[in-house]
Structures are given as C-alpha cells and as structure tokens.
C-alpha cells in the first residue's frame, strides 16, 4: 500500500513538472526572439556569403595555375603531333602540361570589385543589427501590451469584487424589508456587464499572448506566462531629453540607415567599374608541356634500302624530355565593340545608384517618422500620466464619498454608478499612460542604441 501511494505521489510530481507554467521576463523574451528569429538568421547567412565574396575579391589578384594530363587511343589515318607526320595505324598518345596566368591590368576592375564586396559585407553586418533592432521593438510592443491588459484585468476584477459586495449588502437590506428589488437587479446587471468586460479583456490578453508566442517562435501548445515590470514613479516622471538630441542619436546609431548608406557607396563603386569597362586589359601567361606517342620509336634494324625492319617505342622519360615545350605570352585586349554591353551596364549601374539614393532617403524618412511618433507619444503619455495620477486621487476620494452616501441612502443609484465608472475610467487611463511611457521610452532607447531593457522580473 505504501509503495502504491509513493508511486501515485511521484507520478503527480513528475506530471506537475512536465506541465509547469514557464514564466518569461521581457529580457528572456528578447533573448529568445533574437535566437529564433528567421529574418536575423537569414541576415547572418547573407553576411557570411558577403564575407566570402569579399575574401574571394582579394584572391582575384593572385595568378592562376592549372595542370592538365591526357591519355588517348585512336585508329586510322591521322596526324600525330608528337612525330609530326601522318600515320595510318592504331595509336596511343598522351601528355601533360602546366599553365599559369596573371592579370597585369584590368581597368582597375579587381580593385573596384574588392572595394564593392567590402562595402557589401559591411552593409550585410548592419542589416543584421537592423533586424535585431526591429525584433526588439516588436517584442517590447507585444510584451507591454500583455502587461497593460493584465493590469486592466486586475482593475476589472477588483471592480467585480466591489460590485459583488454591494450586491450582497443590497440583498441583505432587501431581505430586511428596508430595500427594493430594483436596487438588487441594478447590481446584478452591473455584475453581468462587468463579467462580460472581463471576458473580453481575457480574450484580448489571450490573443496578445499568442501573438507574442508566435513572434518568439515558441510552441503555442505549451503554457507560458509573462512577468510584470517593476517601475516606480521617479522613472516615469524623469525629464525627457530634448528631441533634437534624441533624433541626432537615432540618426547616428541607426544600423538600417548605415546599411543603406554603405549600399549607396557600393553602388557608386559598381558604376565606376562599369565606366572602366571601356579600358583595355593586359594579361601575362606561361605554359610548359610535353607528350608521348606509340608512333615515336627507335629504329633497331633496317633493310638494304634503309627501311626500318625492327623498332621499339621510345620510353616515356625520353619522349617527355625530347617533346618538352615552353611558351610565354602577353595578351592585350581592347574592347572596340561589345554589342553595347558596356553601355547597357553603365545605364543599369546608374539606375542602381539612383535606387540606392532613394533607399537612403526612404530609410531616413521612415526613421524620422518613427522617432517623431515615439517622442510625441512619450510626451503625450507623460502629460496624460501626470493628469491621470492627480485625477485618480480625486476620483478615489469622490467614489468613497459616493459609496458612503449611497449606502446611507442620500444619493440614488445613477449617481453612485457614475462615480464608480469615473473611478474605473481613471484607473484605466493611469495604466494606459504608465505603459505608454514605458513603451515609448524603450522604443526610443532602441532607436538611440541605449542599453537593453532592464527592470523586468
């Protein structure tokens, strides 16, 4: 029996561990997103590819070296290059060679390509940072949306508890014969409406949580919860930095803008290389080779007329030595007519340069709009927070008076309900302003490259 009880308890403990809820902080959510985000992974792969291209552009200055070897069989009339004569027989022949080449001048093409590939690699690195920045902003936005909705749910649940207490009190008064059923039904109606509000907020919370879980690329079938963020009034009321300072920092830090500017430089290199395609090129090459043939023979005996009667194929080493050849050359190439390929290349490079300039302008405009919106949102949220904080103090006091007066019968239900709704609205406004400040402050910190979000628990 003891063994059975032990087994059951152990099973419950194990199952509890398997299905335990995982609580994630804001920092953990950001770390998970940066680890799993596919756009960041793709950007890193592109950076690796760009680095390989940059490395190869350096190797393009090196000479080339090739080796070749062959072994062939043929039958019938043919010209045997090894013996320098026509033969009509079965022939085995082969050979080998080494060749090398180096570009002496290519219109600065290799140098410009190397500069372009270097810039493309630098742009790819900045693209990684830009994707990281965008991912952090998305996670912060989703996380604070969840926390804000949770705070609103707490307010709604407290309101529901208050209404239940008021309903119980009113039911006691009605049973004592000093109250009316109308008041009871009024509170029951309010409770039903409040429950509906809680259901809607719970649905909103579930939707926000699912969206964040999907953003983090986590398994939605597992149970996750998200920890709140500790923040005090001093942090919320700290003075805002001047907009021009925030904007200048954002422009200077923005990896997206850096990537666009670097891509613009790369396009300028590409256009310059296209213009230099009209220039001549000069290459140097050298080769060494040798061959052998079954027709290359040594005469051992001849007849009276001097015709060979007995021969043997000359050994490979002797043939390789006798048939050795060497060459060296300089090759000058001048593009006189390229079927308009060079002109087309220049036109395309110009369009790419114009698009790169437009991309820089668009990226800067987008960043400017985002910073302006976040900054204005922060200013508005701080103003709203100060007003909502002061207002809530008065609304709480007013509601306590209204509650006392309603319970004593000096005001009607409508007046009491209005006071209650004002208090609930004041609490909601304070929560919205509070998390509005936090959201926009964190977003601006990301834009300016400030430290990662802290204070999550």
UniProtKB/TrEMBL annotation:
<protein>
    <recommendedName>
        <fullName>Transporter</fullName>
    </recommendedName>
</protein>
<dbReference type="GO" id="GO:0015288">
    <property type="term" value="F:porin activity"/>
</dbReference>
<keyword id="KW-0812">Transmembrane</keyword>
<dbReference type="InterPro" id="IPR003423">
    <property type="entry name" value="OMP_efflux"/>
</dbReference>
<dbReference type="GO" id="GO:1990281">
    <property type="term" value="C:efflux pump complex"/>
</dbReference>
<dbReference type="GO" id="GO:0009279">
    <property type="term" value="C:cell outer membrane"/>
</dbReference>
<dbReference type="InterPro" id="IPR051906">
    <property type="entry name" value="TolC-like"/>
</dbReference>
<keyword id="KW-0998">Cell outer membrane</keyword>
<comment type="similarity">
    <text>Belongs to the outer membrane factor (OMF) (TC 1.B.17) family.</text>
</comment>
<keyword id="KW-0813">Transport</keyword>
<dbReference type="Pfam" id="PF02321">
    <property type="entry name" value="OEP"/>
</dbReference>
<dbReference type="GO" id="GO:0015562">
    <property type="term" value="F:efflux transmembrane transporter activity"/>
</dbReference>
<keyword id="KW-1134">Transmembrane beta strand</keyword>
<keyword id="KW-0472">Membrane</keyword>
């Amino acid at each position: 029996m003891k063994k059975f009880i032990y087994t059951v308890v152990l099973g419950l403990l194990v199952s509890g561990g398997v299905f335990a809820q995982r609580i994630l902080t804001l920092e953990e959510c950001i770390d998970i997103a940066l680890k799993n985000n596919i756009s960041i992974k793709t950007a890193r792969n592109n950076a690796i590819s760009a680095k390989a291209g940059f490395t190869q552009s350096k190797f393009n200055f090196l000479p080339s070296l090739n080796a070749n070897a062959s072994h062939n069989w043929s039958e019938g009339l043919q010209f045997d290059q090894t013996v320098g004569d026509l033969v009509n027989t079965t022939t085995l022949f082969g050979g080998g060679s080494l060749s090398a080449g180096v570009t002496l001048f290519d219109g600065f093409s290799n140098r410009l390509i190397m500069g372009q590939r270097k810039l493309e690699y630098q742009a790819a690195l900045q693209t990684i940072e830009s994707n990281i920045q965008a991912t952090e902003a998305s996670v912060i936005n989703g996380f604070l949306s969840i926390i804000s909705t949770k705070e609103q749910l707490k307010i709604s649940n407290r309101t529901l508890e208050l209404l239940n207490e008021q309903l119980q009190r009113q039911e006691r008064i009605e049973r004592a014969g000093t109250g009316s059923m109308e008041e009871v039904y009024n509170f029951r109606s309010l409770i039903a409406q409040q429950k509906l509000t809680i259901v809607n907020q719970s649905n909103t919370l579930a939707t926000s949580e699912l969206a964040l879980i999907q953003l983090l690329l986590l398994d939605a079938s597992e149970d996750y919860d998200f920890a709140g963020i500790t923040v005090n009034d001093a942090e919320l009321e700290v003075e805002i930095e001047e907009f021009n300072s925030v904007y200048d920092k954002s422009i200077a830090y923005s990896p997206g803008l850096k990537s666009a500017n670097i891509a613009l430089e790369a396009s300028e290199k590409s256009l310059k290389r296209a213009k230099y395609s009209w220039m001549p090129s000069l290459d140097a090459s050298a080769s060494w080779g040798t061959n052998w043939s079954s027709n290359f023979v040594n005469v051992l005996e001849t007849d009276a007329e001097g015709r060979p009667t007995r021969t043997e194929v000359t050994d490979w080493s002797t043939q390789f030595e006798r048939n050795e050849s060497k060459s060296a050359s300089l090759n000058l190439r001048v593009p006189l007519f390229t079927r308009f390929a060079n002109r087309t290349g220049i036109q395309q490079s110009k369009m790419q340069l114009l698009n790169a300039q437009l991309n820089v302008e668009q990226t800067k405009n987008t960043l400017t709009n985002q910073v302006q919106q976040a900054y204005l949102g922060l200013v508005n949220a701080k103003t709203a927070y100060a007003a909502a904080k002061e207002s809530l103090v008065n609304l709480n006091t007013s509601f306590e008076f209204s509650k006392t007066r309603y319970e004593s019968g000096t005001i009607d239900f409508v007046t009491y309900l209005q006071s209650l709704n004002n208090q609930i609205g004041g609490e909601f406004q304070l929560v919205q302003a509070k998390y509005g400040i936090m959201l926009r402050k964190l977003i601006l910190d990301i834009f300016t490259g400030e430290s990662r979000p802290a204070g999550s628990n």
